[in-house]
Specification:
This is Interferon-related developmental regulator N-terminal domain-containing protein. The protein is mainly α. It contains 16 helices and 2 strands. Strands 1-2 form a two-stranded antiparallel sheet. Helix 9 packs across helix 12.
Length: about 350
């Protein structure tokens, strides 16, 4: 009997221990549920897209690059400076080893990243890393669209990240070597060359340099492709305009409207505006409003908050349901009643007469 009782006691103890462990597990899971599951934490979409660039499947990487291009072009990324090193390494890897579509998307993302960084050491570092890769791809890639994208990206990276204005001359030389390529590559290289010419000091350009490039541009103006002729015409106009105005101060065309202003010089800033507007597409207005680089380039003052804009509390105080609104309504009713009473008395007097 004692042994049976002992077995029964041990069985009861085991059952009790299992129940306690079950209760403890239930409580622990409940507490974890209150804290929230890790998957429920909102992740940065930018970081999620960067993670997809590590995938082996090219279609996944291309989808991620399209997402990055959309994010970078749609609005200004204020923290792009902090992400420059890791992001540029991934994008340059896509340019080196990716297919035609992947490399073109990566080049476009690099240019947009440079615009978001907006100058400083990070932009200089990006140009130093990207210049040899983009020059090689622009000159030797088999796909014309990829070469054109790399040429545009190289020009924008140099426009933003060159330590001095004269440092853009080697990049301009690399771009001018692409003018004899296909229509897509030539037009992109001409647009990029014009963008960099707009920031080069006029006194740094010799007459022989100008004559040499004007001769090359005249050849491009004789080509049959409309895009090439248009880009070459803009480049020639800027070069001639700068040549004739080297000793004169450029006139300024300032568009001012209440709270913001955009100042454009006669030719150079107009070309810069056209290229950046073409490159940023729908995101141009957002970048123009929030990106310090755009403010500096175009001498632009962003639209500020209107001074006469009412705050929520002020609107509540002036609403119809507020105490002030009800008091004002009572005053109006009293005034209307007084006027009606007065008019009624006057009509009575007239009737008596």
């Amino acid at each position: 009997m004692a042994k049976k009782k002992s077995r029964r006691a041990r069985s009861v103890e085991r059952d009790t221990d299992e129940e306690m462990r079950s209760v403890a597990s239930t409580c622990t899971l409940a507490n974890m549920g209150e804290l929230g599951e890790p998957d429920s934490i909102e992740e940065d979409p930018f970081e999620q897209l960067l993670d997809l660039l590590y995938e082996r499947r090219s279609s996944t990487r291309e989808k991620a690059l399209r997402g990055l291009v959309s994010l970078l072009s749609a609005r200004y990324q204020a923290d792009a400076d902090e992400r420059q090193s890791s992001v540029s390494d991934l994008l340059l890897g896509c340019v080196r080893r990716g297919g035609a579509t992947e490399a073109a998307l990566a080049a476009r993302a690099l240019a947009l990243l440079s615009i978001s960084i907006g100058g400083g050491e990070s932009a200089e570092s990006l140009l130093t890393e990207a210049q040899p890769v983009l020059e090689r791809a622009a000159a030797h890639h088999t796909a014309q669209a990829t070469r054109a994208a790399c040429a545009e990206a190289l020009a924008i990276a140099a426009f933003v990240g060159a330590e001095s204005q004269l440092d853009t001359l080697p990049v301009m030389s690399a771009l001018s070597s692409l003018w004899k390529g296909g229509a897509l590559v030539s037009a992109a290289a001409l647009r990029g060359w014009t963008l960099l010419l707009s920031v080069v000091p006029l006194h740094a350009l010799s007459d022989s340099w100008r004559e040499e490039h004007l001769a090359s541009l005249s050849t491009q103006l004789a080509r049959s492709e409309v895009d090439v002729r248009s880009a070459a015409g803009c480049a020639a106009a800027l070069l001639l305009d700068g040549w004739g105005m080297a000793e004169a101060e450029p006139e300024s065309d300032t568009d001012t409207e209440s709270e913001f202003s955009v100042s454009l010089s006669t030719t150079s800033n107009m070309d810069t505006l056209d290229l950046l507007r073409h490159f940023l597409a729908e995101g141009f207005q957002s970048h123009l409003q929030d990106n310090p680089l755009m403010h500096e380039v175009f001498n632009f003052t962003p639209r500020s908050m209107r001074l006469d804009k009412r705050y929520d509390t002020e609107r509540l105080e002036r609403g119809k349901a507020s105490a002030n609104g009800k008091r004002y309504a009572r005053q109006l009713r009293t005034a209307r009643n007084d006027v009606a009473s007065y008019c009624g008395k006057q009509h009575s007097l007239w009737d008596d007469e």
